[in-house]
Amino acid sequence: MTETPQPVQIAALAWGVKQSFRSYVEATGGTIEVGAEATRAEDGGFVFQAAPDSDLSLAADGTLQGVGKFLGEVKFDSHGGMLKVFLADPILEVRESGAVLTVADTPKRNYRVEVATLDLAALVREDAGAVVAPAALAMFGIQWLGDHYPLKTPLDPVRLTPAAA
Ligand code: HEM
Description:
Layout: E1 8-15, H1 19-27, E2 31-35, E3 39-40, E4 46-50, E5 55-58, E6 64-71, E7 73-78, E8 83-95, E9 98-104, E10 112-118, E11 124-125, E12 131-137, H2 139-144, E13 154-162
Antiparallel strand pairs: 1-4, 1-5, 1-13, 2-7, 3-4, 4-6, 5-6, 6-8, 7-8, 8-9, 9-10, 10-12, 11-12, 12-13
């Protein structure tokens, strides 16, 4: 008898926000600092580990379900402190209407902003088992990034790594 493959939990979320924004901040003499549980990936993006109460899973048919809570923070600073963009503890929520990514936008984490929408219909599974979804700027993300990009501007794709089986 063959066993039905069980969904696997997502253990980490990697997202670089927007490559051109990272390059801009660093090219203008600014800094990008990662803190708490976040780390910087080789491609310049950021990796957030799943929180203990995270419940985002990837089914055998490649569909995502649940709410993924991830830990860590990133601080962008430039133009002598005039540019300050902060994000912490991303949450990825799979809803009927689509998937959204929210972040806390202050170190106190008292507010959350819906920064991106994810196109799960275009989810790609990589050889190593991770899945990658295209992301686009959501309405409240516009102001978060200083009102420079229009709604639905493509952002860096979001990569989700399942826990080792
Ligand atoms: C002294 C203040 C500032 C100056 C002189 C400045 C200057 C510039 C310049 C010249 C560009 C065009 C860069 C290019 O196209 O290569 C740019 C782009 C941009 N700026 Fe600023 N800026 C300032 C403040 C800010 C602030 C407060 C934010 C808030 C987040 C911000 C966010 C952005 C973004 C998102 C872009 C587009 C980057 C991209 O994706 O190419 N800037 N800025």
